[in-house]
Amino acid sequence: MVDSRSNSLSSAKEACRVLLATQPRTFRRVAPVLESYGLVVLDFAALEQQSGYCEIVVTDQPHLSGLPKALERLLGHGLVGLIRLGGTGVADVVLPDDWTPRELVLACRLLDQTIRLRRQYLQERRRQRRLKALVYRDPLTGLPNRRFWEREVRQLLRAPTPCSVLVAILDVDRFKGINDQHGLAVGDAVLAAIGSALSSSVRAEDLVARLGGDEFALCFTHIADPAAGKRLIERVRQAAQAAATEATGKPVTISGGWVMGSSPQFMSLFAAADQALRQAKQQGRDRLFP
């Protein structure tokens, strides 16, 4: 049995919008019944007035045509429900050939609740992604932050199969002087430019993060040749340095330290890379060490 009409949604704003993509005879048969139970019935002309928006599409046609592209995408993602009257085909609900208007009302109302739950779930997933981005993303450079770096390092250390890793730390030379001479806005522009350059200079599987201030860390896996590793880090350093120089309009240099080893040794490798960075600074900056 269909729920009492008194339980129908109370306003057009809250009511389920149903597009009847049906033959005229079917439309005339069911539209008054759907409306009497608080559903908003649309044809293609009314759909345009609703900006192409509805919760459910009902059809008695073997193939849907003439739907707005946006509505097709929502159907494809399950964010608009589809009911087929008679026959077979892909749909959320397929009613048998001897369907009745009241069965269609019940199907619409149940599917409406399903669609609303799907949309709420999607909104919650998007909200969770935004929160995750706030937790793990550095807002100035767009790079992962130290928290993300530490999480990924823990996962690397727990990996059952060890792998070769290259760990590097890059640091802007005399960054405080840039802020003092040109202002904090220019300093921020330098960091943002470096973040963009680093993002475009590494592979998707590589790890790069802003540790804080003007210090950036990188981790490359499955690189066994030290000569190739040094060429890689130097290329990345040069790209970041060029981007920083372009951002400020004056020469900016970057120093870096790097080391290679096995993933279970990561923490000692990171400490060694930090020490190598100190050596690069002591030897005159604007260079890699070793």
Can you walk me through this structure?
By secondary structure, this protein is of the alpha/beta class. It folds into 2 domains: 5-132, Rossmann fold; 146-289, Reverse transcriptase/Diguanylate cyclase domain (Alpha-Beta Plaits). It is 49% helix and 18% strand. The protein has helices at 24-36, 44-49, 69-76, 101-136, 146-158, 175-182, 184-201, 226-248, 266-282, and strands at residues 17-21, 40-42, 56-59, 81-85, 93-95, 164-172, 207-212, 215-221, 254-262, 288-289. The longest helix has 36 residues, at 101-136. It is elongated and about 85 Å long.
Shape: elongated
Q: What's the helical proportion of residues? A: 40-55%
Through-space gap between termini: 79 Å
Largest beta sheet, briefly?
Answer: 5 strands, parallel
Low-confidence stretches: 1-13
Provide the CATH topology of the largest domain. Answer: Alpha-Beta Plaits
Order of helices and strands: EHEHEHEEHHEHHEEHEHE
* Assembly context of the chains: single chain
Based on helices, strands and strand pairing, what is the structural class?
alpha/beta
Radius of gyration from the alpha-carbon trace, in angstroms? 30 Å
